[in-house]
Amino acid sequence: MLKQTAKQLAIATTAAIALSAGVASAQQACSNYTVADGDTLATIAIAAYGTSNYQPIFNANRSGITNPNALEPGLVLALPCEDGSLPDGRSAQEIIAAEESRFAQTKRSSTYEPPIKLVTGNGWAPFADESLNGGGFITRLGTTALQRGGNARDFSVSFVDDWNSHLDVLLPLGAFDVSMAWVQPDCTNRTYEWSKETEVRCTQFDASVPVYDTVFGVYSLPDSSYAGATSYEQLKGSTVCRMTGWGLADLEGAGLQAPETITLLQPVTARECVDAVLNGTADVATFEVQLMSDTLSEMGLTANDVVENPFVSTVQSLRFIVHRSNPFGRQYLSMLNKGLNEMRESGEWYAVVSDTLREHNEKLMAASN
């Protein structure tokens, strides 16, 4: 693939962008595509949008994809349009406006209940960042859920950028009720030795239903011996980079535990992980594909400079969490769950996500000009 301009790279960060000029393929944005033998989500994304970032296609077809690295030939995928809508569907803005109008007509209780205190953090666009409408799509999903599913609960939203403090201090002390959003480990799986972090998350916190499913890729230099690993087992002995505050349960469950089988680097930012791979400090970096796409764009790199392993990835669910010492914690999670379920049924969930991705992309384009 030819080296992209900064503007093209910015466009490539979401699937809410039409097919780049000069790319001729049956895989086109704003259409339905039937998977052929040998297709992967990455190859489809490259043909349709000029990027290997396939998370938006995954979002639009979540119910039909169980393994992003093993697509079944014949599967029909909806490739999102320029405005984020699905082929032959209403735009995100139309769906959001209709749901907001419907809620405005709902009779609210006159009984006072204190606002639910929500907390998230900056530096994680398009998921959570004050620069985006509603604070990013994770924040918008949380606040909207409290106004759906029979809920009509007031709330406050704060941004505390020290993400670790959410779990260590803010939720345990009751400064906030709900933190948005975290990967909660499978706490029923005791087939491996839990790290202290996993132990804390499983014994001190409760979590909502999945809010957003994201693909965690494994990235390395093209000529690395780990670029073609076909299992996590083959990553043993490597130096792995994943940012501090990000859960490690998926790695631990696959037998990659530090310091026994891997060396672990945990810097603050995704850019530091990419730098570590480029300078040889780390063999691989592993985190979600949307953030990797944005990070490569910001650094002026392409998917050929740091490649995604086509065989090894995990699907992880971001959730809202509460501390078990909060007497109303489970009640708040129940409200959020009801709202999220209604949003998925009405299409508002996808509309909020795609609308924020569109906004995020526009900001990246403006910054690159």
Automatic annotation (TrEMBL):
<dbReference type="InterPro" id="IPR018392">
    <property type="entry name" value="LysM"/>
</dbReference>
<dbReference type="Pfam" id="PF01476">
    <property type="entry name" value="LysM"/>
</dbReference>
<feature type="signal peptide">
    <location>
        <begin position="1"/>
        <end position="26"/>
    </location>
</feature>
<protein>
    <submittedName>
        <fullName>Transporter substrate-binding domain-containing protein</fullName>
    </submittedName>
</protein>
<keyword id="KW-0732">Signal</keyword>
<dbReference type="InterPro" id="IPR036779">
    <property type="entry name" value="LysM_dom_sf"/>
</dbReference>
<feature type="domain" description="LysM">
    <location>
        <begin position="31"/>
        <end position="79"/>
    </location>
</feature>
